[in-house]
């Protein structure tokens, strides 16, 4: 296991999606919550973590809004053009990091669409992955889970071992890049970094996160995120 004393930590923020499920003209990462774009909340949370040395934001090729954000000029933030899928955008970020980050530096990948993450939880994840091959925030499912086929319940799934993966997900740079590239070469579609690391045989650590670390996906998620962020502003952890 590489030493953690010399390993720095970097963040990659995939922000190149089109937000199809949101159904808005504006990509959801730029939708305003109390006059501030979703992406700005997310970046402010990452900038509040002293251990994060720098942030790479992957934006869409046709993104016209990124440059309108004041944070686009932040000295700790650089930009890359994302790819067709989320994993491609993360790989573009890793490609940029390979120019200056060490192979065993930590890379924390966090969705632009998850502005409600608590800084304390990011720091807890960073603390707990030390000495491991990496891991992720996740929350145990609290609903009864049904398997559905053709609109009918075909089974009830035992939920005792089911957790919903969140972000950040945090792995060592070279290992994460190799795993994502291998997954792609194997034709494995991955929707998160941990899927690629599992495919590579890594024993990913799960750190329990909060249920309010939601991913803004559909219209109803926006007002929920607004309520969470307003609560955080009134009662910071
Ligand atoms: N090619 C892509 C697709 C997604 N993302 C980012 O990955 C995160 C999680 O993806 P998701 O919630 O699926 O966002 P979208 O792909 O924009 O949403 P949809 O699937 O509804 O289009 C988002 O911050 C999104 O901007 C990305 O950087 N590059
Ligand atoms: C990475 C993620 O947020 C973990 O739950 C999720 O997999 C992203 O999936 P999406 O389909 O790209 O939103």
From TrEMBL:
Its EC number is 2.7.7.60. The record marks 159, 215 as: Positions MEP for the nucleophilic attack. Pathway: Isoprenoid biosynthesis; isopentenyl diphosphate biosynthesis via DXP pathway; isopentenyl diphosphate from 1-deoxy-D-xylulose 5-phosphate: step 2/6. The keyword Ribosomal protein does not apply. Keywords: Isoprene biosynthesis, Nucleotidyltransferase, Transferase. Belongs to the IspD/TarI cytidylyltransferase family. IspD subfamily. HAMAP family: IspD. This is 2-C-methyl-D-erythritol 4-phosphate cytidylyltransferase. It comes from Gilvimarinus japonicus. The lineage of its organism: Bacteria, Pseudomonadati, Pseudomonadota, Gammaproteobacteria, Cellvibrionales.
